[in-house]
Structure formats: C-alpha cells, structure tokens
Amino acid sequence: MKEYDYLIVGAGLFGCTFAYRAMQQGRKCLVIDKRPQLGGNIYCEDVEGIHVHKYGAHIFHTNSRQVWDFVNSIVEFNRYTNSPVANYEGRLYNLPFNMNTFYQMWGVTTPEEAQRKIDEQRQEAVERMRQEGVTEPRNLEEQALLLIGRDIYERLIKGYTEKQWGRKCTELPAFIIKRLPVRLVFDNNYFNDRYQGIPIGGYNRLTEGLLRGADTLTDTDFFADREHWESIAARIVFTGKIDEYYDYRFGKLEYRTVRFEQETLPTPNYQGNAVVNYTEAQVPYTRIIEHKHFEMFGQQVYDTPHTVISREYSTEWKPGMEPYYPVNNDRNNRLYEQYRQLANREQRVIFGGRLAEYKYYDMAPIVEKVLNMQIL
Q1: Sign of the dihedral defined by the CA atoms of residues 149, 151, 155, 158, in that order
Q2: Most buried in the list 46, 205, 275, 360, measured by CB within 10 Å?
Q3: Is 312 a catalytic residue?
Q4: pTM, whole model, 2 decimals?
Q5: How many angstroms separate the CA atoms of 28 and 129, rounded?
C-alpha cells in the first residue's frame, strides 16, 4: 500500500490548492518543492514589516464569486486596486489606456476628442500597410499600430515589450497583443474584474491555509531521487516543467525569466504607487515595484519609515534560472503539443500549472481550474 494518496511536486498555487481539495476529501498528501520555502512564485518575504513579493508582483483578480469566496475563506483579502503608472523619459502616464492617458498624451479632455485622435493614428497605420500591399499585421508592431496608433505605441508599448521579450517588436508575432484595452473614461483600474485584492498579511497566509494538514518538504528535488518519489504515492500531481518530466526527449521548451534587484530605502514612500513601468528602451529594467503599497494605505505608508523596492530585469532563460514566461511561438507550441500528447496518456500523473501546461496563467484561473477538477 502506498504511503500517500498524492505526491504533489511543486508548492505553487496549483499544487497548494490541489492539496487542500484532496485533503478535504480525506486524501493524504505530500507536497515537495525544490525551493527553500513553500508558495512558489507567490511567496512573500518579510523585510522589516513589509511583505515583499519575491518573485514579482501578484495581484489577485477574478469575476468568479466562487473563486473569490474560496480564497477569502482561507484568508481575508484587502481592497488593493491595481493602477500602474508608466514612466517614459520622466513623464508619467496612467495605465491601462484611458482618458487620463489620452489627456497626458495629447491634452484631449473629452471622449470624442480622444476617439478622433486614436482613429486618426490608426488610419495612418492602415494606409501604410495598404501602400505595402499588406492586409494582415505581420508582427506585433503592425498589430499595435492598427490597434492604438503611433504615439502610444512608441511611448508606452515598444520599449517595454522589447525589453520584456528580448526581441524587436517587428520580430514578435502579432498574436501577442490581439487586443489592447482602451477606455474612454477616467478610470485607472487596470482590471475589469469584479473582485481584486491582496491577502491581508501577505500571500504566505494563503499558502499556509491551503497546506494545513499536508506533509511538506522543501529543498527537495523530485528529479534527484525520482524512483523513490514515484514509489510512495498512488498518484502524482506534477507542476514543474513538462519537458523536464520527459527528460527533454523532443527538445527543450524556451522561457523568459526575470531578475530582481531588491533595495531597502530610508524613506517611507519612494514612488507613491505599487507598480511603475519604465517604457523607454534606454532604461534596462521593465518596472519598479514598491511592495508596501500592496497592503499599506493612507497614513499606514508613513507609519513605516522605510520602504522596499524591486527593479525587474527581463532576460532569456538558461538552465539554473527560474522559468517564468513560456515563449508561445510556433516552434515552442508545436514542441509542447508533443509533450502534451504524452501527458494525456498518463494514468496516474496529473499535469497542472504554467510550467506543466506551458501556458501563462493568472492566479484566479489556476484556483478555478483546481476547484472544478475531479479528485479521485
């Protein structure tokens, strides 16, 4: 008889939520992770009373009442609203693109004026493609120009995107930005979802709540003793890289990764916002996160005389680095499909999450997916 019903490889949000649901149904779970802590990319480090998102900013948002009620049953979430700002050559623009952005960009004050300016710039892109005999956008740059026009593309999209992907926009596929949010209202709320927030006390409280009752091991690499780990449980939930699970038999999938440069500063308020994107190519980092603004509001910000910021640098992934973003181009998608076909034939292994499914996920869809899964 196996020691566990489920071995869960990876203590990120998928693995933790699966463990919670399995334990609710009386299953015995062991969760292992090769990192020194649990929580995957939502792990927070306490730095002098500030919860630092060690692996990048994570804002929970969803339209699903089921998902929102579920996560709040584990830990109460606050009222944080994501309203990032873009810095281009020292000038600030609100995101997503809304009437504040258009006023900052062109000085327009009415939706009619803004729409007229957008249509005018989009028409320039249409005419340019017509002259070149092109009917469909061939790359991300042409797609963006068709959607929003040159001014916003040049100042707020081009440099940021090229830093994010490490490639020129003319070399990136058009499908990366099939649409861009354009709002003709003065609303800086980045998400359209009904619910959004951050766990009060940080994401570690969510992880701890989900894993309460499970056996856990950190600093534990599944592949270092694969035969042993496969022998101790009736079923396996695998949330790591799917190509690594199959020993790269078809080749290696590609990823982008992020390097973080963290700094504690002797000021209570460095940039006045949690997220500021730096959209010009000459600035090497993509954005600066000031972590206290995720959970501290109003006077609370000044009650702590210091702050913690993280500069984010996007780069190509290499072995030994943390894989963050799947590079979903034609080559990688074809390769993943080969691995997916192998995974579909597995009888006792469940593959889930961004690395196992080679797909970028927000947090809420991960939770919703696990809530709707059948636990055997």
Answers
A1: positive
A2: 275
A3: yes
A4: 0.94
A5: 60
